[in-house]
Amino acid sequence: ITAIFTDATDIYFARNLVNERLQAARQELPEGLTPTTGPVVTGLGEVYIWTVEFTPEMTKEGAEYVTPEGDRLVNALDKATYLRTVQDWIIAPQLRSVKGVAGVDVLGGYVKEFGVHPDPAKLAAYGVGLVQLVEALEHANRIAGAGYVSRSGEAYIVRADARIRNMEELAQTPVVTRDGQVIRVMDLAVVEPGRAPRLGSASSNGREVVVGTALMLQGENSREVAQRVGKKLEEMQASLPPNVIVNPVLDRTELVEATIATVEHNLLLGALLVIVVLFLALGNIRAAIITALVIPLSFLFAASAMNRLGISANLMSLGALDFGLIVDGAVVVIENTLRRLAMRRQEIGRTLHATERLVVAASSAKEMARPAAFGQAIIMLVYAPLLMF
Predict the structure, then answer these.
(1) Which is nearest to 186 in space by CA: 117, 140, 254?
(2) Are 101 and 217 in contact (CB under 8 A)?
(3) CATH domain 45-111+196-252 topology
(4) What class is the 117-191 domain?
(5) HSE (CB half, 13 Å, CA atoms) of 319?
(6) What is the Cα–Cα distance from 152 to 158, expressed in whole angstroms?
(7) What is the C-alpha to C-alpha distance for residues 385 and 389, in angstroms, rounded to an integer?
(8) CA 43 to CA 47: how far, in whole Å?
């Protein structure tokens, strides 16, 4: 379910409103349904993607993998389940603590489960209903606090942890008592490892893998967040189970750096082309260089204004630089100045002194200031609506 707010609405204020409504709605929802809100991300928040997979020798036909817990994995389903477990319980929790990461998405593998398959004949023989079996499992897998104990000026927290940790504990869970005999889950059902139904899969080079995606918190710097995630994954590699590796698939840092390099190249090339074209058109190298100086000055003022107004320099805006529009007003002023200087030299029949050239240049710039300003204002008005989106 997607709730759409206006652009002016603060995202955290909107989340508070939604959470308030969800709290009221929980009372009317069926038991077992718990609505939650997603992370604060945008459509471009996927800054780092990686795969969790086995080393090549573990993917060969008939290769057997022994987990650190001693479990033997032979078939592809068990291996895919184990990769998903590593992603969900080792990698994802550590990445969520990285600054700027709002969440971690996972695709592929199987979520590990313990399956309890009741035997109707045994249930009937012991006089146990299916509801009793379900309630026994729910009550056995709990954790509760029991206050604290004070000793020597210190408080010791008392906690009853009855969570089921493995399949053996699940099978030994008591259900009812009959004639002094404890009837356990293993007496009523078959307990075996299982997998939850999955909605998608992922592969790399023809082998099934688990794909993880780091989602950037809205408003963060994508390059910095991607670098932190990549560094964290490198640190985690040493703590992963043997023969389990993490391979980067997409790193937003590479895209950002490539874009910046492209912008730098375009700036230099564009400035050189402007100088060459202006020199050919005006026939004066100094006038061409002066006109080209407008480019860095324009970027300086634009960047200062964008920073002050909170407008981001995203990939689209950096790729839409137009040197023709930037130097348009300067070309008009410079061309008029050259024309006025030439006319003045013809009038007096000699070369102008520095003071005379400055007077002519100032007069020429003043003459063209209003037309040039109106021309630039028209261009700004044309692009102004883009700031509304």
Answers:
(1) 117
(2) yes
(3) Alpha-Beta Plaits (3.30.70)
(4) alpha beta
(5) 7
(6) 16
(7) 8
(8) 11
* Whole-number Cα distances in Å, 167 to 15, 113, 172, 186, 226: 39, 10, 9, 10, 38
Residue 258 has pLDDT above 90, yes or no: no
pLDDT at 322: 65
CB 103 within 8 A of CB 215: yes
Lowest-pLDDT range, 45-49, 121-125, 310-314? 310-314
pTM for this structure? 0.73
Phi-psi domain of 196 (left: phi exceeds 0; alpha: psi -120 through 50; beta: other): beta
Query: Do 183 and 174 contact (CB within 8 A), yes or no?
Result: yes
Q: Domain map of the chain by residue range?
A: 1-37, 45-111+196-252, 117-191, 284-388
- Encoded tokens for 11: 């995202």
Q: What is the largest CA-CA distance in the chain?
A: 128
Report yes or no: 270 and 320 within 8 Å, Cβ to Cβ. Answer: no
Question: Computed from CA positions of residues 235, 237, 241, 246, in that sequence, does the dihedral angle turn out positive or negative?
Answer: positive
How high is the pLDDT of residue 116?
Answer: 92
Statement: residue 271 has pLDDT above 80? no
| Environment class of 332 (CB within 10 Å of its CB; exposed 0-12, middle 13-18, buried 19+) | middle
| Sign of torsion over alpha carbons 63, 69, 71, 76 | negative
210 forms beta bridges with 52
Q: Which of 255, 283, 276 is nearest to 327 (CA)?
A: 276
